[in-house]
Amino acid sequence: MSGDDPRMIRIAAALIDDGAGRLLLVRKAGTEWFMQAGGKIEDGESPVSALRRELGEEIGLVLAEGDMHHLGSYSTPAANEPGHTVEAEIFHVRSRHDPAMQSGIEEAVRVDHGAAIALPLAPLTRDHILPLFRAL
Fold this sequence. Notes:
The protein is an alpha+beta fold. It is built from three helices and seven strands.
């Protein structure tokens, strides 16, 4: 769902931490940027429904609505679509789930904050997710 501006991409994404100081990051096939699991919100879909669908499709994680806590809405340049802006609904999920990479995910890593900043990160991850992660 992009509203009136075709350059705006609405997504729902999860800051997934394992409770031991590590963050789950994924890299989509054919890209270089690490980011959160999640994806586009389809027309008529709520952010929570979109996130539940995307987490199942991308990493095999099945969650109930109560397993997610909304952290806020953030806007940033899109990592993989030049000239586009991502408007993201970010949710916190605490899970030790071992990701089963599916649906275009090429790599998944669990990293602490120091290791995360050394990776090539999507702008949303670098500018918003990492500060949120440090604050948890």
